[in-house]
Amino acid sequence: MSDREVSAPDDAVRPDAPDDVVRPDDTVRADAPDADAGPARGMRAITGETFSASDAVGGVRGVVESVAPGLLFVVVYLAAGQRLTPALVAASAAALVAVVVRLVQRTPVTQALSGVIGVGIGVVWAWRTGDASDYFAYGLWVNGAYLLATLVTVLVGWPLVGLVVGLFAHDGPLNGGSWRNAVAWHDDPALRRAYTWATIPWVAMFALRIAVQLPLYFNDEVAWLGTAKLAMGVPLTALALWISWVLVRSTRPRRQQQESPEVP
């Protein structure tokens, strides 16, 4: 086992790492008045009238952009006889190509740019240390940070999912409403309990990633670490989003009653 501390880089900070997991995307919520602007993605998907796992994780393109750098890194690293430089070049090229293609097609580049940043950190860190495992270290730090932050929201009674739902409510701050309306659910024990349960899948996902991937990192199991990152990236994110959506959807009648109280 290596005695080094977990330092900073990562493969791609998208559905595989928490960037797209908890960061609302650039699209509108599915049940908002201007929902025809596009499908809701990321955490916004849990507020929608319907749920599409594909749309929630960015569609086929989003999945490819998320998976390609890490996959190429592992494949090229093994194919090149565990030489680090070709693997770093392949991962960097995949991330840059995604941005260039989006620029050429004049489509939003937010997700691809977040990937370049994540890959760039991983590439620089692994290049400086000469250790292929360090390509994945930033992702471990990010997952650990989000695990702590998400768990704290549950413990203090302000679960993450409740905050997200409040932000994108029709009378919430992101739709022209007030912050007071965004957190009105906190005074309703039933809603607060439902949002707490809807946040638990995120705590479990981040904890599972750390529990599985950290030992592989310390043991320099590059191939297994890369495989675990891919397997526990998009699939787990889609599952967490779906579970949260189901639980949030069950609160819709109560939320509507809260947002439109009867007038005596």
From TrEMBL:
Transmembrane segments: 86-104, 109-127, 147-169, 194-218, 230-248
Record keyword DNA-binding present: no
UniProt superkingdom: Bacteria
Region (Disordered): 1-41
Chain intervals with Basic and acidic residues compositional bias: 1-32
Coiled-coil ranges from the UniProt annotation: none
The entry's keywords: Membrane, Transmembrane, Transmembrane helix
Identification of the protein by name: DUF3159 domain-containing protein
